Amino acid sequence: AVGYCAQTLKEYYSPCTAESPFPPHRVLAAHGFDSTLATPIIVNGNKFAGCILTPKAGLDAFKKPDRVLIQDIAALLAANIYSKRLRKQTEESHKMTREM
């Protein structure tokens, strides 16, 4: 599911992990997690930075508000990652300027 997110930049929801095409989901199902949601963390609008993989007990356990909340969390993480990268670039630029 993480690979799917990386390739498509879209979430992948598996309401029944036991029937998922992804082997890690079936492992989660064996441990009692019946549903899995994989939400991409997208930086700069189109760069995959990671994925939030959230398993949950119960079939079809993620309702629309849950999915939206996790998407919002991923967006906040992406903004934080972008901000930290931008700050690092700025600091490096200032350092180079001072060394000249």
Outline the fold blueprint.
Layout lengths: L1 H7 L3 E3 L8 H8 L4 E9 L3 E10 L7 H36 L1
Antiparallel strand pairs: 1-2, 2-3
Structure overview:
The protein is α+β, with helices and mostly antiparallel strands and 100 residues long. 51% of the residues lie in helices and 22% in strands. It has helices at 2-8, 23-30, 64-99, and strands spanning 12-14, 35-43, 47-56. The chain has a 3-stranded antiparallel sheet with strand order 1-2-3, sandwiched between helices. Strand 2 and strand 3 (47-56) form a beta hairpin. The termini are far apart.
Features of the shown structure:
alpha+beta, three-stranded antiparallel beta sheet, 51% helix, 3 helices, 100 residues, 22% strand
Average pLDDT score = 93
| Poorly predicted spans | none
Strand content: 15-25%
Oligomerization category of the chains in this entry: single chain
Shape: elongated
Short description:
This protein has 100 residues and is of the alpha+beta class. 51% of the residues lie in helices and 22% in strands.
